[in-house]
## 1
Amino acid sequence: MRMLRFLSHLAANAKFRLKLIVSYCLLVTFIILILGFAYHQISARNMLRNVQESLGNIVLNNNQLLDEKLRDIHAKSEVLPIDNDLYEVIAKVDPHDNESQLKADRRITAILFQYFGGDADIYSSFILTPEYTYGNAERMYVPPEGFFRSDLYRASIIYQGDLVWVPTYSFADAFGEHEMTGFPYEYEKLMSGVKELNLTYIDEQGVFHSLPPDRTRPVLMLSFRTDYVEKLFADYVHRSKLQGLTYGIIDYSGSVVVASDAKLAGTRQAPAWLKEAFEMKQGSFQKVIDGRKRLIAFHQMESTGWMSYIEIPVEDALQGLESIRSYSVLFLAAMLLVSALLAYMLSIYITKPIIRIKKAIKMMERGNFRVRIPEHGRDELGELIRMFNQMNGQIHALIEENYASRLREKESELMALNLQLNPHFLYNTLTTLYWIAVENNQHEMSRIMLNLAEMLQTSTRNKNETWPLATDLDWLNKYVYIMSSRYENMIETRMEVDETLLGMEVPKLFLQPFVENAIIHGLAERESGGIIVIKGWSGPDAICFSVEDNGCGISKERLDKLKSGEVRSTGMANVEKRIKLLYGPLYGLDIQSGKEGGTRVLIRLGRHPDPGSATQVS
């Protein structure tokens, strides 16, 4: 608070030129910051979307390559159990004769090469029996006793003749080769596909043959090194040069097949988002991991059901925004410099006329009211100088006229007092005429005089804009009586007003102009039978009154001109203006005239005067 008061005091005492320069610079800075922030947000969103699409495409393409490879291997493995040569070799081999097993190994190795030898990505291919491992053992050797005790063999049994892929595992741990633990070798970690081979054979006579039931079925084992799968991701990492990028493939149980961190391969360290990813199967989302927001793109492989993913910190994906920030700062500095220069030039243009006015005011303080400022330009400042010169000239004239003005005010007060006596004089005069008519037995004339005097007295005593409806109707009855006397009782007037409305406040004499128009313009030419009906009722959203006659009516052309305002009726215009001032623009008049004659005026009043309108009236 103290700092705010200090800044407020400083701003209040600063020169106008300084205020203008600072405010202009602050305005430009604010605009640039807003635009820079918006541009930064839009750029970040677009860049993040592009990175997200790129990661998704890489994961999808890698999966498609792997799926195509594994589907091809799966198709070849489906043909292997019905290969006649393989059946013949396995069926005839003597498990207790080394020479027989060596001959069988050469033939089976040739058969495996026929099926899988053209695929350089397959690290090794074997057919294993409890007695012997058949296949090319140049790269690696799988001990049969270790294999048939391993999870790989159990997986082949569970899937009953279908090829199943086993996630990355440790060769030494899987096959019980513990003496190899701690020594580096190139097939330390593998991922393998295993399949129990239910070998069958149909001879030339059409007889179906299979291995004896008591004989253990051989198992096909195809292995890949993890670097084969990993290189698909590693190529993208090398090309993208994105820092902090990680990747991997994980099966549904959480076993890591491959990972950017080689130590994780073969372990069970599934990320927390894995279950959600398997539910979505493919896509991307952002997650907070170890306090950092990370973008994750993922896709489930069709052949194995494993989940491939690429993960990158969001700030690393947006590292290209650093240049945008630098350019924004430079742009802001340049704009501030230009703004300060423009503000200084503008301040000179604005403050120079103000300084002239300030000097002129000081001369006026000394009594010199004839000072004039040179007028230049037609803008607001030029207009201000012209108005100052006019004001300065008028001040001198006003000082001279001050005494005379006071005398005129006193004369006006005396005149107003005299005018207040006029209504009272007229009322006394009408009363005198009333008694003269009574003394001369002119009863009709005396009643007219009495009604006129009471009408005058009622009007002059009430100074308000409104009065009770009962007062207005009483005044109207006296007026109708006078007009009926003039037209020798050719006009009949009916009043059908809801008695509950008699106490409400209404605009003074709001019905009289319409009754007068009905008599003078609508019924004046009738010799008899003229009827005027005055009604009043409470509507759903207004208090309504109507004045209806059976006179000659109003032509459509004149009625249209009255409604459009092209032709104005002084009395009706006065009433409508007062109603709108008192109750608001939703209320007023509506004039209707039938084709066969007659006119109906509908007047809508509010239930209470509108407060805003009442202020305007006062």
## 2
Amino acid sequence: MRVATDIGGTFTDLVYVQAGTVRAVKADTTPPHFEQGLLNAVAKSGVRYADIEFFAHGSTVVINTLTERKGVKTALLTTRGFRDVLEIARGNTPDIFNTYYRKPPPFVPRHLRLEVGERLDYRGAVLTALDLGELPAQLDYLRGEGVEAIAICLLHAYRNPAHEEQLAAAIAELWPEVAVIASHQVSRNWREYERSNSTVLSAYVMPPTRAYLDNLHQHLAAQGLGPAPFIMKSNGGITPIQAAQADPISLVESGPVGGMLGAQAYGQLIGETELLALDIGGTTAKCSLIHDGQVEISNDYVIEKTPTSAGYPIMTPVVDIVEIGNGGGSIAWLDAAGSLRVGPHSAGSTPGPVAYGRGGTAPTTTDANLFTGRINPAGFAGGEIEPDQAGVERAFSELGARLGVSGKQLAHGVLQIANANMVNALKLISVNRGYDPRDFALMAFGGGGALHATELAAELGVPKVIIPPFAGVFSAWGMLMLDVRRDCIQTHLQLLDAAGVDELAREFLRLQDACAAQFAADGFRAEQLRFEWHIDARYLGQEHTVKVLVDELLLPVLLESFHARHQQSYTFRLDAPVEVVNLHLVAFGAVPKSPIDPLAASPSPCAEAALRGTRLVEFEADQPLETPIYEREWLLSGMCFDGPAIIEEATTTTVVRPGDRVEVDAYGGLHIHIQVQGE
């Protein structure tokens, strides 16, 4: 028995696999006691804790702690003279013409940023030895200020962490109760401000993240779970719970990336290597691009970036995701100019959409899908909630009256605006990265992905939509398909030339040995390990880099790979020397996977056996169509049919537009071929 859970803003998803059979359930998320929603999901599934051999978990606890400012009071110890790096930050304003721009305030105020005597040069050589004479008095001061966590970021520690290690050890001896993390434990990259900020944010979330993971582990152990949980990381891998507690900022996008890696895994299973992955949940919509069967990993992650704020950079590898505040619970509202908006505010699970009947009065995207017939009222929320249809109609009618339109017209307007927001997000991850979305298939999942996917694909010119099995809980399913992963990134400046290739190999092998030792400490054998080498490189004299996979240590191959990647990202290539900036070693520790069994093949392509009746659905305002309703559980491999159609399952609903064609693959995935406008 293998189990994975994903705690989202609205629902907590659980997937379990036993003997090739997959089952899934959803339960309400229960803030602030998130573990209760997880326990409720396990109870609802009927899984016995004693039968579980593997347990994976993803959550939004770190990003929520940051965005809601619920971390602990944090101090920063840094090299003398560099106290204000955190406040000076960068001058890279998101919009140079926006006069309302203000630098985001640092998470550590100036009176909690203290300096220590020490200095390294850029090679890591000691210029001034570490002076710990003032440390006892400094710690006494921080105790008096109520500090609970200390971040250490010393100049050039990415090259030589010796002073940081000595300082952390001294703090642990003098004040063992305080949480401490040093910058070399978070990032071995240069960039003083980004490294300082990353370390500060990691310290800020460390106590609440540790408490959350400890509490989760204790609750699960008390219920009879034997193995310690694995935790989903932002880099697209899982990690033992102890490693997650030691590096909490690596969990900043723990929840969303499971689905993106699940899309990669399912794409490999069915032979689809070019995918736009879209996850629409109750609160947000998230998308990522998969090219040549691989997700993009970014080291330049930023939270809270807006037109008036540069946000806060975090130096941790994160699956490249674009996220917007549009999901099933996104609230429709009128702005000051009287224009209709959808999101980013969400009704969450409490009170939830109006249809939940829990006191919500503002219409949401889910309410619009119900009101237009896309969602079956008899199967709403898996049949567990009888929707308040009168309340939904009233909410749309009242808001529509303010705009001079009917309730139904307003509901269609809500869906159109929500779709437009999601199309913009998909363009950001594709067109803005130099990719044509028409060259990809759209794989949609999450509770709302299948409801919107066909209309989004038609708008973008994407030829095919894929709705994978267990789409409503796909992020949790994805965690069952992943290996343990570590990313070792080290700043290493050198020219990419004939003399430098051997040096690259030596440095990568050194990193590889160190990473293998970390895996060995976690109980992994050498034969379980697999390594990938990447470099971050640029033309000599440039500022920004592109990431290049080192397939072969042959100079012509490496240079051509760099030039091609640079041209794809920036539209040009130069006849100029190439400089390596960072080495990026990706290490995987293999764990057993949970493959899904193929479906029985249908003796006929006809899908009549899965047909469960019809109902009126409005694909266009005031144009109801009598639409066939299919039960997904009864769709077999090889079946096909034309839209319009609605395909229902316990955790989501798939909308097939008139003219689109559906085919069922060997594993139950729905391949919807999109009718191009004018055909």
## 3
Amino acid sequence: MAEAVAEAMGGGTHLLVQAGTGTGKSLGYLVPALLHDRRVVVATATLALQHQLVERDIPRLVEAVGTLPGVDASYAVLKGRSNYACLHRIRAGVPDDQGTLVDVPQGPLATKVLELRAWAEQEVEDGGTGERDHAPRHTDREWRQVSVNHRECLGAAKCPFGQECFAELAREKAQRSHLIVTNHSLLAIDAVEGVPMIPEYDVVVVDEAHELVSRVTQAATDELFAADVDRAARRSQRHVEGSEADDLADAGDVLRDAVNDLDAGRVDTLPDALGDALVAVRDAARACLSAYPKDAKSAGDDGDAGLTQAKGAVQDVFATAERMAAHRESDVLWVAEGGEHRPPHLAVAPLQVWGPMRDKLLTDKLAVFTSATLRLGGDFGAVAGSFGLKPSEDVDRAGGQELERDEDTLPWRGLDVGSPFDYGQQAILYVARHLPPPGRDGLGAAQLDEIVELVDACEGRALGLFSSRRAAEAAADAVRVRLPHLTTLAQGDAQLPELARQFKEDPHTALFGTLSLWQGLDVPGDTCQLVLIDRIPFPRPDDPLMSARQRAADKAGGNGFMQVAATHAALLLAQGAGRLIRTHADRGVVAVLDPRLATARYGPFLKASLPPMWTTTDPAVVRKALARLAAAAPSDAR
């Protein structure tokens, strides 16, 4: 892998590398990255991997080779501005709904905010980074009291604390560094959205690349709440002398009524009432921005900070309303249903991101994509296409023919470096072919019986990955009632880190949950000998964005189901199955309770995306295998 990455960096051919768990793929790209003669950016999807790189892998590598002649071992971590504590907000206060800077918020929020402020001041004294990940435990709401986004920021030149600013210091360090570690979202904002966030670089390595399309989509997704319009209007009232702030508040009321009159789901044709409401918000926000004073005082005092942040809120409302009102074919607009703390609101996302990724990232930079799951259906083509690379540009498919890189052709190749694990000996793939196909009503009696029997056979030691919270809770309830001697945990019983800790410490525990457990949970050893998957994880038929992408693929003459739904399912299925074998010593079963994996025409594509496990449809064989593993496991997996 290291040789292939070095060759790609030197030759200008994009590279996709599938590298299974345990291959040490981070060293496979970090070594050539340090040896490359220009700056390299490494982008990850998760904080866990970012921490692993910055706190373990890179320091060890720097210690080993950092003193060699010609090796620039400098590195830095770079995140979006809102990931750093803002010293101006901490020392000058937070704008209230009227834009007045308030020193300390009221109520139960105050205690935590004071704790975060004290932590930030200590970070200044200690020369720390002020990053959110290092802060005391907190909620999103609490963090917003000590941070700002890029629109709310006064700018280093105008801020009285610009010399100490954590975000600015991080950028300055990045400017001096050869290797920059960042996240997919910042990469997307910098390269795809065109907002300069990262110092000039030559090569980007995208780790956890199976997540990239989702993260780029998230970065380009906007939401609009009527409450956002209300808040922007209230904050503007102190700074706008005319009726423009009141007009913006009135437009927010019109928007609220228009959204509440619609059912949740995709908006293919813009209803007149909604279109008129968006235009009203857009125009009122534009007028409000124009009414802000042009000769604002130096932004170093408290009043101007409130003005800057109030104006930023109006700019956000204007930009989002303008995008939604345009209702472009390249965007998907939908009404998002309300939740416990979120009223119904509008959302808009790009129909596809491969075009912008190709034009704005892959044409200018050299990219190395790596993950344990990039080869879907036995081929790299599906994932490469989602990044904006064409099948005709695959160097290996060209039969050895040299492909010249130019503005129309972006050569790429795929490499599967395999796995250090012997999946045929270490793992069984069990497809419950005898069960009825999953229905819309959740788990049936047959599925619950199967789950209980499998968990009983392995005496706990089971990780259940379910398509919905309702299914996970139903399975947990059934196991608790019928296997009371085991500990059964369900997502929602506690925070995920606490659930993961309990699962690891008690070998006779089953943990059931949804999507957040499918990826990133690392539980090696005897505590996890069974991974249960209740159904093939196709996107929901009513998912606005996925259904729109599927329809667009069909219209373009492709197979929307295979290109969108099946590819989505294959990625998640491979990620879920990857929870089982984490070390050479691990043994176990991946049990898929969806017979379609064995019977449907798309079954072979999905199975070809999984590790090469020994496969069976015989439940008796699987229960015996699990019982043998449970009997051989130590009584305490710790």
## 4
Amino acid sequence: MLKILILWGLIGVAKQDTFPILKDLHERKDLDFLLIDLINVLMRDYEVTCIAIICDEVYLNVFAGPLFKRTVSVPFVMTVVEDYDDLLSPNFVTLESLRAARKEGCNVYVILLANGLQASRLLRFGDRHRILDTRAKYIMLHDFRLFHSDLHYIWRRIVNIIFLKYHKKLAGLTRNNAWFELSTVPFPNPIKSIFVPRRVDIWKNQNFHYKRPLFVDKTSNLNGEVLNVVYLDHVPSVVVTKNNVSNKIGGVEVEILHTLAEKMNFKPRPYQAANAEIHKWGQKQANGTFSGLLGEMVSGGADVALGNLQYTPYHLELTDLSIPYTSQCWTFLTPEALTDNSWKTLILPFKLYMWIAVLLVLLITGTIFYGLAKSHMNLQDYMQIQRANNLVVEDSDAKPGLYLFGEIVNSILYTYGMLLVVSLPRLPVGWSIRLLTGWYWLYCILLVVSYRASMTAILANPAPRVTIDTLQELVDSKVTCGGWGTQAKMFFEESLDEYSQRIGERFQTIDDPLQAADKVAQGVYAYYDNSDFLKYITVTRKKHNSTSNQTEVTARKDTQRNLHIMSDCVVNIPISIGFHKNSPLKPLADIYIRRVVEVGLVEKWLNDAMYHIRTLETSEDEVKALMNLKKLYGAFIALAIGYTLSAMCLIGELIHWHIIVKRDPNFDKYALDLYYRNKNKKH
């Protein structure tokens, strides 16, 4: 309200005869009444949220009349510029006013500038920096300087516009009155070398002659116009099938494009950017231009872009993106470790804590067996001494069954033998030992059955793979990370996550994904892209290796690693279709894309695009329950350990025999039984 009061103060100071070139126009108030009629039509037929008025001092008097009185129900944001202002680089006050109009959501712009060059520079600035809402409805004065070939790209973006061309009353004709011609841009027809506006209506005597709709939806039916569509081969968005004659394109975004072409009635003309294999999406060059797919969009050569464009501020600055039709998991393609754990086959069935528990039970049970055996032996000795000293007979079978556990070493050994389901050579005497033996056998049966079942599963299935599945594991692996484009590197460098920043420090860009896959197979690289595309290059590389020279493949097989897609997503990024900057096609295209997503067609097309790849991946990674020699490394290692320990014990016994036993003064090789009997008595 304060702005309106200040505005009226300015208008009261202005004089109507200040600009004599527009004296007739001001006196008749034709432009005032025309604007009132246009705004009333807009408010009646369309939803007007706010009106932005941009004028100079020449046309300031237009707003001194009844315009605001007859349109009090709609808010205004007014910007008055000086005639010397360069609107390609406006001053701070003008810029803030334009930003306020965009922030308030003004969807109607009334631009009355006497200088057509000044108006054209305003349009160029507003389009470049998105200060003006190009999809709003515009009312401007007709000026031939607005139709120069350098501004033709503007009229591919601002299509909801009415040009007001004033025709004076001809002298000598009594019935001839001044009138306005209302015209618009010829969208969707392409503008050739000369801009020819299309007449919409004529306003005369405060009345519209044809009473046609002023702002029709020009994008609902494009009348079969040809739209340039630049594409980039990137699975699953765009899948290019090459043949001898031409390339056949398919994929999710191609199917969406065909749906839009059918509903909006246009014909797509797909093509690839120059050197697309090298430049791909494209980057900013030294001269300020862009290469690749983005270069076609920035230069205006393409209307639509297909190529798995991420919904990021970087792409939004250069193009317009549709609503996301899917969200992709972006992660790393990493190498699998070459570590072979077949030698650990015997210990793999149980975890570490389970093995510790088994060992503790073995030691504790063996000690209990030894204690019970010693107690029973002492009881037998006591009973025999009590009966009669002359009845004691030194016989090896005097204590049947107790020699099994009479010594701590034998007790542990026989307890270990029961754990391996080896029968005792003789049933022990003593009910305490027998009861403990029975319950220990039940424990051994349960433990052995579990061990055998787990061992069977390990031998039947492939060896477990050692993979990288988290960012922390990737950072700790010291593998060089990389991907395509400097924007991917900037994403990691500017991240707030510590691990992402460390990845950004050693991130290297690479152009060829198959070359990156080869580096990953060498175990020195990790490639960053979406998970579907990583599956594609993995399968493609395997297929390429299968058709290569078999000798070379065999030579590299032992040095190369399997490829693994990291299970954790670094980020889930929305994916969209690109339109040229400030494209009028985006609003209606968003509606159709939303419907396509809601009915599930995008998911169906994604499955179709990835079906062949997933089939090859499944057939190659099929689990085969086969037994081979490599899986028995653990058994041979255990056997080798047993041979080694036995040989060491044998060598120790021989050393003990020759150095200690044979040098004993009481040693007699002809009476060894007497030697050992006397020696045992001493002990």
